[in-house]
Amino acid sequence: MISEIIEKGLFDFYDKIDTWQDAIIKSCNKLVEKDIVDDSYAKQVIETVEKYGPYIVLIPGVAMPHCQECADGVKDTAVAFMKVEAPVVFDENDRDKDAKIFFTIASENNEKHLENIAQLSDILCDEEIVEAFNQAKNVDDLIKISKKYNI
After folding, report:
1. What is residue 37's DSSP assignment?
2. Residue 112's pLDDT is what?
3. Do residues 76 and 8 lie in contact, with contact meaning Cβ atoms separated by under 8 Å?
4. d(Cα 132, Cα 112) in Å, to the nearest integer?
5. Per-residue confidence (pLDDT) for residue 120, from 0 to 100
6. 96: which of 28, 48, 60, 119 fits an S-S bond (Cβ 3.0–4.6 Å)?
7. DSSP string, 84-141
8. Mean pLDDT in the chain?
9. Threshold 0.90, pTM exceeds
10. How far apart are the first and last CA of the chain?
11. Which helix (H) or strand (E) covers residue 63, if one does?
């Protein structure tokens, strides 16, 4: 999965992003640039988080922005990676909902959507891999992670 993200150029690194809304927009930027989703996709994710809360923060420090499969504006299936050095705050009252690592999922169909979520869940269950992502500063670090953990 990580090797595919690297090959497709679906990664970004930032020092700081001021709001969680901006973080979601930026996490979708590469997907928009590669014509996998259009601009409306980030807006849908933001609206869903506003409605249901920060459900996209799976574990402390890691968010998985996504909408349901076949969401408006989704043209293809892909996962993008974004790392922010300063934590993005989703809920001032629950700092376990801060995130520095973002895996943004866009899916054309339900089967691939569930497959991507399951694959990411497996990766994120490994604390060593999560820590490696936390230490990543650039694409070279992503390549090392991909090779070391064969992901």
Report:
1. B
2. 84
3. no
4. 26
5. 94
6. 60
7. EEEEEPS-TT-GGG-EEEEEEEE-SSHHHHHHHHHHHHHHHT-HHHHHHHHH--SHHH
8. 94
9. yes
10. 5
11. strand 61-63
* Torsion over CA: 72, 53, 142, 137 (sign): positive
C-alpha 110/C-alpha 95 separation (Å) is: 31
Q: Rounded to whole angstroms, how far apart are CA atoms 48 and 58?
A: 15
Q: In DSSP terms, which residues pair with 37 in a beta bridge?
A: 74
* CA–CA separation, 1 and 126 (whole Å): 15
- How far is 101 from 84, CA to CA, in rounded Å? 7
Distances (CA, A) of 30 to 27, 34, 73, 146, 150: 7, 6, 14, 19, 23
> How much of the chain, in percent, has pLDDT values that exceed 90?
88
* pLDDT tens digits, one per residue of 99-146: 999 999 999 888 888 888 899 999 999 999 999 999 999 999 999 999
